[in-house]
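Last lecture ended with a question: if I hand you only a sequence, what can you say about the shape of the protein? Today we answer it with a concrete record. The protein is (2Fe-2S)-binding protein. Below, first the input exactly as provided, then the predicted structure, then a couple of comments.
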Amino acid sequence: MAKLTVQNLSGLAVNVKPPETVLRAVQATGTDWMHACGAKGRCTTCRMEVLAGMENLSPESAPELKYREAGRLKTKERLACQCTVTGGEVLVRVPKPVQLPHQKYT
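The predicted structure:
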């Protein structure tokens, strides 16, 4: 089983079972994560910054490639609704522009 740690959510550690997306795995813990389009890859509100373990994420989806080409995803960002953790460990953080107002970030 793969492990995802969200650094600025008090180090939330989540076991992710492929093909479960990062978004679904985090939500299964009862933690809210922004996703304005309903997890369909149509916005970028669920984006996350990958600090370590990018090689342990699934290949970029068509929506991620589209947003990256349009400059809406930075080099180290992925969409939580589109990617899965394929193995090993991944360390991410939620960027400030997409943090939920009621969620406590560290």
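Comments.
1. The domain at 2-97 is CATH 3.10.20.30 (Ubiquitin-like (UB roll)).
2. The helical segments are 22-27, 62-69.
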